[in-house]
Amino acid sequence: MFRAVTLATLLSGIAAGPLLAADPPKPVAKQTATTAAAPDAVAIVIPANITAPQRALIRLEILLDRAHFSPGVIDGKLGANLKLAMSSFAAANGLPADATPAAVTDTLVATDAEMTVTRYTLAAADVAGPFVEHLPTDMTELAKLDSPAFSGPVEAIAERFHMDEDLLKALNPGADFTKVGTEITVTAVGKTKLASAVTKIEVDKTAQAVKAFGADGKLLAVYPATVGSQERPAPDGTYKVRTVATKATYTYDPKRLTFGDPGKGKLTIRAGPNNPIGTTWIALTKPTYGIHGSPDPRLIGKRASHGCVRLTNWDIEQLAAAVKAGAEVVFTGAEVRAKT
Question: 68 an active-site residue?
Answer without folding.
Answer: no
